[in-house]
From TrEMBL, chain A:
Keywords of the record: Phosphoprotein
GO terms, biological process: phosphorelay signal transduction system
4-aspartylphosphate: residues carrying this PTM: D61
InterPro entries: Bact_response_regulator, CheY-like_superfamily, Sig_transdc_resp-reg_receiver
A UniProt-annotated Pfam family: Response_reg
Name under which the protein is recorded: Response regulator
Domain of life of the source: Bacteria
Coiled coil listed as a keyword: no
All copies of domain Response regulatory, residue ranges: 11-124
SMART domains (alphabetical): REC
Length: 127, 663
């Protein structure tokens, strides 16, 4: 699916609590020519973001255990790391109709990988 | 002159069977003496008998007409004299002659009245024959006495008629007096109010108790309308009277509002009346006053208003799902239907025993109670509310639940109150209240209305809650289902990672996606049905070609099975269109139309997928899963025709509507 291979692979943080889904998402990200970093929940994700300033895209689930959900994570990122692009995904279709933080893109679960990848490529070009 | 006229005249004298009278008795005595006979009679000839008004020397008071000798005198102008009754053929076989008392001589003078009719005779009778009859003098005397009898009869008749007239007059008078009393009683007792106004100043001349009740027992008689009822004057009623008086024409009003206020400090009593103002006139036709008659229709107007408010509430409750909105609608309904100084509702915090009032409606005599209040500070009736009982207090100073707190209630202008508890899961949640600045006897209709409002409100809250719970459950189910589908998709991609045919993997994951979106469309209607247009849009949005699909058709709900098969079908058609058909070139378009056709036996849904502006298409050679999905049609049983036209693919699909909508 990768249309071109960037010289230095950009980092995408995948936040997903369900292992199989996380595995598939990591594969999708890697196949698209990015380098994937994994987090199992929002707290984990914040810890990684604090140590890896080179992360440019966050791909996160909404429903996750332990407090902070994907929407709050997106809002937090918008506040603390404004340049990072955020992609949100959820099985709750109504989230797509809610107001999301600026520059957040939503994909309904199960998502079409090609469309998610296309969005990641678009984001990587404008960063 | 026939016998009937004669009998009518006799009966008109009203003398038969009357008691003896001195005048007539004297005459027979005189006749017997003058004619020197033992017997003298005044005999009146009835149809079947002769009856004696006066008699001497003869015992029976009447005899059958067949034994009457006098009857032979009828039609005679002068005396009938029979010297020997045993010799005369008319009398010789008469029992009175043959047997006791053995009558022998008869002389009778007819009693001829003014009309020429003979009512009877005055006669003298002897037990011995008198061949010589009567002397000239005696005959003359008997004639004179007959005239006397006739004039006595006549006089008697006149006196009796006079008495009749007097009696009649007296009866009339009694009747009139009685009728007057009856009218007066009616005037006093009728439920309608009545008043008679005199002159151009409309001075009260007569009023009935109903009228006094209506205006609050004010002094009216002798006063001008404007002076006696300034409240009514202020509301334009004097202008109406002026006009009725000036034009001399009656006018009527129905349901006219009359806000009664006995004095400027007392509360307004709002009444509704139907009435007619009828000008009265003298003999010459000049208007002299106005008669007012009408009825108090307040209860009817209020009942109509209450019913309208209830109907409004039912209408509103149908669409409300939030408990606060429902309570607000209920309070608004009570405001409209019952009214009061202050009406509102508040959420109850049972632990703190506090009520928080977010909004209320007040009239001029009320003060707003918006804010938080401790319920105990208004009395002990919170215990009733907790049990779900409606609290009805006509006077807070008297009711034992509030008497001790009457002062704090007075601060919020509350002298009477109605509280309706709204229970949620059997626990007091909200109170709807009506406060009144004056003591108020809540009518049974008002209390019934409050109960009805309560029932409807409870039902609405229960329904809203059930709907909400159902919605949450549906969302949760949908979420789980889609997560499972996402995992299935992930397992499929992971499993097929090493497969070189990537298109097949993509087709699989996208079909799973189409299935998932069909569930979204179903979720909106709780998996019972989905709007056909929503299903098509949800499926087609995955292709990011929104502007190139054109959808047209009536709004239509389809069942869950049809939703799933239609989603998969549209997904395959769109996938093919993107790969090989109209959507593979920028100018291509797809038009999707559907119609319902009325067949002979059932309705049919026809759907057409028409591609235009694309490259020429050809029937695919193979028979892959995609082609088979398409050929299964709208409900999985076929009914699809594919046209591979120069212009683009045309897919015509049809299915019975009943099957499309099958739950």
């Amino acid at each position: 699916m990768a249309q071109y291979a960037p010289l230095k692979r950009q980092l995408v943080l995948v936040v997903e609590d369900e292992p199989i889904l996380r595995m598939a998402a990591v594969d999708m990200v890697e196949d698209a020519g990015f380098k994937a970093v994994e987090a199992t929940d929002a707290t984990d994700a914040v810890r990684i973001l604090e140590t890896r300033p080179d992360i440019r895209i966050v791909f996160t689930d909404v429903d996750m255990p332990r407090g902070v959900d994907g929407l709050k994570l997106a809002a937090l990122i918008r506040e603390r790391w404004p340049p990072i692009h955020v992609i949100v995904t959820s099985g709750k279709a109504e989230i797509g109709r809610m107001k999301l933080p600026a520059d957040c893109v939503f994909f309904d679960k199960p998502y079409d990988e090609r469309r998610v990848v296309a969005e990641m490529h678009r984001m990587s070009r404008i960063c | 002159m026939n016998e009937a006229d004669r009998l009518d005249a006799l009966h008109a004298h009203d003398i038969l069977d009357t008691a003896p009278e001195v005048g007539f008795d004297d005459i027979v005595r005189l006749a017997a003496r003058l004619c020197d006979t033992p017997v003298a009679l005044i005999s009146l000839l009835d149809a079947e008998r002769q009856w004696f008004k006066a008699r001497v020397g003869f015992e029976p008071s009447e005899t059958p007409i067949a034994q009457s000798i006098c009857q032979h005198a009828v039609g005679q102008r002068d005396l009938l004299i029979i010297p020997d009754l045993t010799l005369d053929p008319r009398t010789q076989s008469n029992p009175l002659v043959l047997e006791d008392p053995h009558l022998r001589f008869y002389a009778g003078a007819p009693l001829v009245i003014a009309e020429g009719l003979t009512l009877g005779t005055i006669c003298v009778i002897d037990h011995a024959p008198r061949p010589e009859g009567l002397t000239e003098v005696q005959a003359d005397d008997l004639r004179s006495l007959a005239r006397q009898v006739v004039s006595l009869l006549e006089m008697r008749r006149l006196v009796s008629r006079h008495n009749d007239l007097l009696l009649q007059a007296e009866r009339q008078q009694n009747k009139a007096a009685h009728e007057h009393l009856e009218l007066a009683a009616m005037f006093d007792q009728v439920p309608s109010f009545m008043a008679l106004l005199k002159g151009p100043g409309h001075v009260f001349n007569l009023v009935n108790p109903a009228y006094l009740r209506l205006v609050g027992n004010r002094q009216l008689i002798g006063k001008r309308f404007a002076e006696a009822l300034p409240d009514a004057a202020e509301q334009g009623y004097v202008d109406l009277l002026d006009e009725a008086y000036r034009l001399g024409k009656p006018f009527t009003q129905k349901g006219a509002r009359y806000a009664i206020r006995n004095d400027p400090h007392s509360p307004v009593d709002e009444r509704f009346v139907d009435f007619v103002c009828q000008p009265t006139r003298d003999d010459k036709g000049t208007v002299t006053g106005i008669f007012i008659e009408g009825s108090d229709v307040t209860e009817h107007v209020l009942q109509t208003r209450r019913l309208a408010a209830l109907a409004d509430l039912s209408e509103q409750l149908r669409d409300l799902i939030n408990a606060d909105d429902i309570a607000r609608a209920a309070a608004e309904c009570m405001n409209q239907a019952i009214g009061g100084s202050c009406i509102g509702f508040g959420k109850v915090d049972l632990e703190k025993e506090e009520i928080d009032v977010p909004v209320d409606w007040c009239d001029a005599s009320g003060v707003s109670v918006v804010g938080s209040h401790h319920l105990r500070s208004f009395g002990s009736y919170i215990e009733d509310l907790k049990r779900g009982q409606t609290v009805v207090i006509p006077d807070v100073k008297i009711d034992p639940r509030t008497a001790s707190q009457a002062d704090s209630l007075e601060k919020v202008h509350c002298r009477a109150l109605l509280n309706l508890p709204i229970m949620v899961r059997g626990v007091l949640d909200t109170v709807i209240f009506v406060l009144n600045a004056q003591a108020r006897e809540w009518t049974s209709e008002e209390i019934a209305l409050v109960r009805q409002v309560g029932d409807r409100t409870h039902a609405a809250i229960a329904r809203a809650r059930a709907e909400q719970e159902q919605h949450i459950l549906n969302e949760e189910l949908s979420h789980r289902l889609k997560n499972t589908l996402a995992i299935v998709q992930a397992i499929a991609t992971q499993t097929l990672r090493e497969v070189s045919e990537k298109d097949a993997v993509t087709a699989l994951t996208q079909r799973i996606g189409a299935l998932s979106r069909a569930h979204d469309a179903l979720l909106k209607k709780r998996w019972a049905s989905a709007a056909l247009e929503d299903v098509a849009k949800a499926t087609l949005t995955a292709f990011d070609q929104a502007g190139r699909f054109h959808l047209q058709g009536p709004s239509l709900q389809i069942g869950p099975r049809a939703t799933l098969s239609l989603s998969l079908l549209l997904h395959e058609l769109a996938t093919n269109a993107v790969k090989y058909g109209a959507l593979s070139v920028p100018e291509g378009r797809v038009t999707i139309t559907w119609t319902i056709e009325q067949g002979t036996e059932e309705e049919t849904l026809r759907m057409c997928w028409a591609e235009t502006g694309g490259p020429p298409v050809q029937q695919p050679s193979g028979k892959g899963f995609g082609s088979r999905l398409i050929s299964m049609g709208l409900i999985g049983t076929g009914g699809v025709e594919l046209g591979y036209n120069q212009d683009g693919l045309i897919a015509s699909m049809e299915a019975p509507l009943s099957q499309m909508q099958q739950p």
